[in-house]
Amino acid sequence: MKALTRSFLSFWGSSIGRKIVVALSGLLLLLYLPAHLAGNLLVFVGPEALNEYAAFLHDFLHGAGIWLFRFVMLAAFVTHIALSIQLTRENRSARAAYVRQAAVRTSLWSRTMIWSGLTILAFVVYHVLHFTVRAGTGFNEEAYKTTLDGERVHNVHKMMIDGFSSAPASIAYIVGLTLLCSHLSHGFASMFQTLGIRSDKTSAVIGKLGWLYALVIWLGFLSIPVSIWIFGYGR
Fold it and tell me: What CATH number is given for 15-230 in this structure?
């Protein structure tokens, strides 16, 4: 047990170990976003489809499943951001005066990634307060309840339509999603490099896949506030 603990502490204390944790937590987030997008796009199928999906998630494992999933994703997100900031600060401290220009460019991009990451963190907090906690929105009131299979459930469809009918909310989502997908397009390639999958032969392909992934996620999520706020879908 002590040997296992020492191995874990040694792994966690090394920059390589923490980079791997950043890559793996990033991979978990990359896998989550398409699933989250697919669920959200049910808003275009109709109220019943989206509300049934939401009710299934909230009833999974007698209600424990959604909270377990939220805890895992929150832990992955916080770990990803915290270790990324820590590694960037360490890299800055260790940088020598004779660093080549290519390394300088990498450092500049790392600083951009950190600031965009912190902005994304603020956006995620806003998103949780807006649609999960529903703080100061009125979305927890009886007006946002509906009957599904004889049971009263939250009307997620109406909540999304009303939520994105607000210009400030939609603008916040558009800005946040744009920063998120810019971050994703570059983080995608970095993740593969850290995990040892990216090479000179695969670098160009992985780079293009990163941009394609980010573009699909961006257009998919963006279609919701744009359709509701600008084109009046569902109103």
Answer: 1.20.1300
Average pLDDT, the chain: 86
pLDDT at 136: 87
Q: How would you classify the pairing of strands 145-148 and 151-154?
A: antiparallel
Measured CA to CA, the distance from residue 116 to residue 121 in angstroms comes to 9
Query: Is the model more confident about 158 or about 183?
Result: 158
Return d(Cα 22, Cα 9) in angstroms, integer: 16
Tokens of 109: 């991009």
Tell me what the mean pLDDT of segment 34-43 comes to. Answer: 96
Q: What is the 3-state secondary structure (H, E, C) of the chain?
A: CHHHHHHHHHHHHCHHHHHHHHHHHHHHHHHHHHHHHHHHHHHHCCHHHHHHHHHHHHHHHHHHHHHHHHHHHHHHHHHHHHHHHHHHHHHHHHCCCCCCHHHHHHHHHHHHHHHHHHHHHHHHHHHHHHHHCCCCCCCCCHHHEEEECCEEEECHHHHHHHHHCCHHHHHHHHHHHHHHHHHHHHHHHHHHHHCCCCCCCCHHHHHHHHHHHHHHHHHHHHHHHHHHHHCCCCC
Give the pLDDT mean for 214-219: 96
Residue boundaries of the structural domains of the chain:
15-230
Q: What mean pLDDT do residues 46-54 have?
A: 96
